[in-house]
Design goal:
The chain is α/β, with parallel strands linked by helices and about 130 residues long. The chain has a domain of about 80 residues: Rossmann fold, CATH 3.40.50. Helix content is about 20%, strand content about 35%. A 6-stranded mixed β-sheet has the order 2-1-3-4-6-5, sandwiched between helices. β5 and β6 form a beta hairpin. The longest helix has 12 residues.
Length: about 130
């Protein structure tokens, strides 16, 4: 997926989240949550509830075994553009619901990872 010009949200600014944000910025994406000069710190779920921005790509990398991946995905769904992708890292396999289609899944050691796409809805005004 070419990310140039796409709006990307990085949820979770741990080591891998910051690395992903820097990589995306270098490839021409508009990154929300961090940019070259500023990091938006705070509760990611609260941020997703109050923002009106829409995203094409999201990285969900909450603290390990926190259980925040599923709530983050639920809050992300109404903020995503059609065809958006969400990359998630969790401690256990994630089943986000029927609205999501898993494109890739796997694990590296104890970390589970998955790439999801939100299924289009007939009543979705986007």
């Amino acid at each position: 997926m070419d990310v140039a010009g796409k709006t990307v949200v990085v949820v979770g600014l741990g080591r891998s989240g910051v690395a992903a944000a820097r990589l995306l910025l270098g490839r021409g994406a508009k990154v929300v949550g961090t940019d070259a000069a500023q990091v938006v710190e705070g509760d990611a779920i609260a941020f997703l509830r109050r923002t009106t921005q829409r995203f094409d790509v999201a990285f969900v990398d909450p603290p390990y075994a926190s259980g925040l991946a599923a709530p983050a995905m639920a809050e992300l769904a109404p903020r995503l553009n059609p065809g958006a992708r969400v990359y998630v890292e969790t401690a256990a396999p994630l089943a986000p619901g029927a609205a999501w289609r898993a494109l890739r899944e796997g694990h590296a050691g104890a970390v589970r990872y998955a790439l999801f796409e939100l299924a289009a809805s007939d009543d979705d005004p986007r």
